[in-house]
């Protein structure tokens, strides 16, 4: 198995679990058999290029993310809630104390 296949298998497992999906759920979303998903995650099977694309779509990540690249900040911004966008727009209006308090909260959530 090629090294990138190992990386994808581990990332698929981690992302799938973080999304609360079972291997069966991912199988249903991609059309890839549950046993193939299991083998991928156990690092004993590679995916075809089309399957990599299908898995990325099902997990709502880019193909690049499956290969370990971090998404650009724009991808995170696009997923922000309306409330978070409103806070970002008002940032310059906050006092230093408010900015510090929000930074502490944001960092706490980022660690969770």
What does this protein look like?
The protein is mostly helical and 112 residues long. It has two domains: 3-66, lambda repressor-like DNA-binding domains (434 Repressor (Amino-terminal Domain)), CATH 1.10.260; 80-111. Helices cover 70% and strands 0% of the residues. The chain has eight helices and no strands. The chain has helices spanning 3-18, 23-30, 34-41, 49-59, 63-66, 73-78, 82-90, 96-111. The longest helix is centred in the first third of the chain and has 16 residues, at 3-18. The chain is elongated. It starts with a helix and ends with a helix.
CATH level 3 topology of the largest domain: 434 Repressor (Amino-terminal Domain)
CATH class of the largest domain: Mainly Alpha
Strand content range: under 5%
**Overall residue-averaged pLDDT value:** 85
Characterize the largest beta sheet: strand count, sense, and whether it forms a barrel: none
**CATH homologous superfamily assignment of the largest domain:** lambda repressor-like DNA-binding domains
Low confidence ranges: 1-5
Number of domains: 2
Structural class: mainly alpha
| CATH-scheme architecture of the largest domain | Orthogonal Bundle
Estimated radius of gyration: 18 Å
Shape: elongated
Order of helices and strands: HHHHHHHH
- What distance lies between the first and last C-alpha atoms, to the nearest angstrom? 34 Å
Which range best describes the helical content: under 10%, 10-25%, 25-40%, 40-55%, 55-70% or over 70%? 55-70%
* Helix run count: 8
β-strand number = 0
